[in-house]
Design goal:
alpha/beta, 7 strands
């Protein structure tokens, strides 16, 4: 498991002697996967002048069951390492990336990982966390899958080891966050309920951090894929000035 697969999109109208801002996109699941297929969000960001990197870190489908299981009980461990190694590789290989203008975003598990990343490194200039998980303790009881997904993914549920769930919660590391953060969440998200975004927002506000919260009424966990068209457009409009 020493290597992971990833793709890099150059900006529209690419000029090799220019420097471009960079965005790391992180998929959900975590047992989803990116592939060689059209994804409008990446294409749109590239059209707006960003270099876009998307990868399949440990936990992704498509590489065998052992690879899928490799993030279970290790959220924010080797999966985080895979993502940071991918960013390091891109910066080493492609001189057209502006190292001072790095952004990160992701939804669901990708939102969890965005939260985790900004709580463990300050290398990104800005971040957008979408339909995220911030606190596994409350997720256990409020998510429509929390009662089984928590133990399935982390190895323990709330009653068995609340301390472990807190250790896996990005909210625990909120004091470390220095990256400006935009939280995007649908008010009718039952998979990762909006209270997950609210807890992070309130905590960061309490700590006087740079954070904004965009709420989408009547939107569920599918906002980015099958939500109301006007809301899908508005969601993307918030990304263009990421870094």
């Amino acid at each position: 498991m020493g290597e992971i697969q990833g793709w890099l999109l150059r900006p529209y109208g690419f000029e090799k002697d220019k420097k471009y801002p960079f965005i790391l996109e992180i998929h959900g699941g975590p047992h989803m996967m990116y592939g060689q297929t059209f994804f409008h969000e990446m294409q749109l960001l590239a059209a707006k002048g960003y270099v876009v990197l998307y990868t399949n870190p440990r936990g992704s489908h498509g590489y065998g069951q052992a690879f899928v299981d490799a993030c279970r009980g290790d959220y924010g461990g080797k999966d985080y390492t895979d993502l940071m190694r991918a960013v390091d590789y891109a910066l080493d290989e492609f001189e057209f990336i502006d190292k001072d203008r790095l952004g990160v975003t992701g939804g669901s598990y990708g939102g969890f990982m965005t939260n985790w990343i900004v709580g463990h490194t300050n290398r990104f200039k800005a971040a957008v966390t979408q339909r995220c998980i911030s606190n596994w303790l409350s997720f256990y009881g409020v998510s429509d899958i929390g009662y089984f997904f928590t133990k399935w993914e982390l190895g323990k549920n709330l009653l068995e080891d609340p301390a472990k769930l807190w250790d896996f919660s990005p909210l625990k590391y909120a004091e470390n966050i220095e990256t400006p953060l935009l939280i995007v969440h649908g008010e009718k998200d039952f998979r990762c309920p909006i209270e997950q975004g609210e807890q992070l927002f309130v905590t960061l506000k309490h700590l006087q951090k740079d954070v904004e919260f965009v709420r989408f009424p009547d939107a569920n966990h599918e906002l980015s894929r099958s939500g109301k068209p006007e809301m899908r457009i508005e969601r993307l409009n918030h990304f263009y000035t990421l870094v």
